[in-house]
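Need a sequence for this fold. Nothing fancy.
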């Protein structure tokens, strides 16, 4: 007989039937919610019963790869649908989680679709049940299609580490390979670096057009690669400069190696350099025409006894030798010699003097104002200047590259940021509502504590972050790394805005303009120089301005030097101009004094 409250007597115990029914109802509701979650998820969901070797796949999973239930039954655990090259990595990742070494299972691999093509998949899973011995009995997880992201990553990797015209490794990849080689310890054989610079390429490029120049560079790349041994790395360093990195000078076959061993390594390297030079003397076919071009080749052999050199140092040595070959008549081969160290010493002295300049306050900041179509100041770019106590003014073109390669750009950049904030405070005292742009080096931006340092400077000075614009390069944006985006968003949260400097000269991409929080782009002076007469420059500038309007970006044109450029730019919707026509860079104090006398 049921007791009050819904309890019944069962085997000597009173059971609350209502509680049991509620539990069963809760279980059914939970199962219903789970089913809806599986079928409503935007990703493919799988639920693997390991004991029964049965796996449930959601409709989205089946749709992701085009499979039917019968297809999935023939491969219940999905191992045969994993690309053969990825199976070991997937198995290891799964075992690591199953054995408790990782908190969850995660794998990026290629999965086979029913139509035969492969999709990149992000697979994630978690063991949710184990038996009394600790063996997994049930695992659930998801599959997400990451094919487009993988394609984008590969494209960005190519842009970052390969020359887009020739397909060769670029300077960044060359430095990585050189540095890795130098860090592996003593070498049984000597290596060599060859710097090949085309003679007169710029004249040919200007005379026949960029398309012909590009075709010639591609032909040169193919010609140079034809005669290289398998272990050599050919890279394109700059517009008309190529570098060959040969890890060891001995040929592959032993008979030749015995002959080479009797030669001085430098002699063998010079012989190879001469072969490279001669190979380019043969006409290069370009469509219906053949072109001939000569090259100057610089050689450095390493390691030299008792000399420790890094990757950048080797490039400088090969470059110094190439410049010597070019200066002595071009179409020649020259080997690096200690006497050529003069140029390297000059760069070293600049670096040392720059350290002293930073410590002793020899640096200063100038500004170049930016104007709207009413010739009113709407902003200014802060520029670093250096006056050496003995040599006088040092061009930024001389010391900024040295600062970049040496790492001094980081403390220099922080000093400039502090100067910018002090200038913003002075502008606020003048009730002058203009923004200030500051160039931020990629090396400085990549510092792990960069955002913290900027935040600390803002707090210490009290400057308004919403009047500060960071000018960054396209090279930084092409990385598309999560850390870059995170740092940009953190800085934007402080009020700082971002501008792309020298837009169009690097890796311009509509993709990053859409994805990243950009406020402004600056059209490089190389495009402004040709307007309104050069049809190509006119087309480029108009396209940039139209694109900026579509993305709702501000545009500043740099290098404006005559009134016709002004008329063209404002007529096509450019908001701001910067250049010698309006104002040359001037000392900050002088500029602030002028603003104090100007109504605003």
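Here you go.
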């Amino acid at each position: 007989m049921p007791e009050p409250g819904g309890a019944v007597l069962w085997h000597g115990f009173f059971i609350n039937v209502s509680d049991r029914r509620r539990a069963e109802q809760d279980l059914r509701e939970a199962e219903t919610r789970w089913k809806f979650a599986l079928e409503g998820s935007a990703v493919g969901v799988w639920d693997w019963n390991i004991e029964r070797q049965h796996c449930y796949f959601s409709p989205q999973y089946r749709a992701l790869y085009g499979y039917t239930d019968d297809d999935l039954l023939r491969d219940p655990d999905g191992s045969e649908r994993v690309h053969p090259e990825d199976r070991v990595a997937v198995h290891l990742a799964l075992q690591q989680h199953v054995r408790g070494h990782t908190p969850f299972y995660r794998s990026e691999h290629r999965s086979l679709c029913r139509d035969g093509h492969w999709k990149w998949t992000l697979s994630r899973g978690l063991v949710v049940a184990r038996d009394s011995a600790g063996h997994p009995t049930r695992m659930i997880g998801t599959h997400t299609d990451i094919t487009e992201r993988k394609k984008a990553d590969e494209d960005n990797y190519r842009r970052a580490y390969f020359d887009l015209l020739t397909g060769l490794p670029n300077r960044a990849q060359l430095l990585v390979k050189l540095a890795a080689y130098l860090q592996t310890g003593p070498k049984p054989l000597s290596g060599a670096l060859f710097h090949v610079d085309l003679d007169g390429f710029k004249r040919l490029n200007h005379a026949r057009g960029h398309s012909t120049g590009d075709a010639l560079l591609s032909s040169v790349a193919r010609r140079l690669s034809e005669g290289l041994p398998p272990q050599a790395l050919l890279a394109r360093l700059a517009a008309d400069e190529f570098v060959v990195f040969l890890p060891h000078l001995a040929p592959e076959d032993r008979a030749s190696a015995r002959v080479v061993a009797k030669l001085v390594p430098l002699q063998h390297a010079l012989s190879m350099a001469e072969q490279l030079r001669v190979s380019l003397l043969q006409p290069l076919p370009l469509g219906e025409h053949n072109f001939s071009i000569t090259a100057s080749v610089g050689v450095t052999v390493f390691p030299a006894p008792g000399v420790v050199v890094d990757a950048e140092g080797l490039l400088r040595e090969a470059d110094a030798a190439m410049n010597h070959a070019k200066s002595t008549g071009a179409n020649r081969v020259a080997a690096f010699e200690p006497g050529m160290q003069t140029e390297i010493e000059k760069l070293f002295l600049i670096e040392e003097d720059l350290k002293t300049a930073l410590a002793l306050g020899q640096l200063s900041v100038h500004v170049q104002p930016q104007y709207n179509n009413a010739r009113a100041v709407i902003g200014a770019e802060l520029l670093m200047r250096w006056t050496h106590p003995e040599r006088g003014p040092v061009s930024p073109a001389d010391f900024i590259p040295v600062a970049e390669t040496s790492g001094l750009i980081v403390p220099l950049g922080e000093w400039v940021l502090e100067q910018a904030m002090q200038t913003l405070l002075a502008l606020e005292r003048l009730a002058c509502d203009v923004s200030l742009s500051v160039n931020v080096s990629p090396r400085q931006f990549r510092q792990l504590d960069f955002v913290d340092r900027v935040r600390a400077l803002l707090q210490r000075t009290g400057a308004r972050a919403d009047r500060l614009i960071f000018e960054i390069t396209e090279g930084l944006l092409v990385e598309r790394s999560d850390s870059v985006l995170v740092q940009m968003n953190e800085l934007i949260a402080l009020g700082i805005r971002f501008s792309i400097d020298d837009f169009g000269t690097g890796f311009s991409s509509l993709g990053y303009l859409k994805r990243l929080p950009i406020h402004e782009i600056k059209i490089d002076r190389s495009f402004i120089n040709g307007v309104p007469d050069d049809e190509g420059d006119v087309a480029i500038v108009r396209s940039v301005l139209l694109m900026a309007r579509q993305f709702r970006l501000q545009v500043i044109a740099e290098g404006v030097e005559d009134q016709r450029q002004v008329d063209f730019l404002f007529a096509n919707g450019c908001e701001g101009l910067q250049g010698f026509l309006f104002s040359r860079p001037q000392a900050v104090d002088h500029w602030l004094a002028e603003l104090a006398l100007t109504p605003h």
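For context: The CA atoms of residues 39 and 59 lie 6 Å apart.
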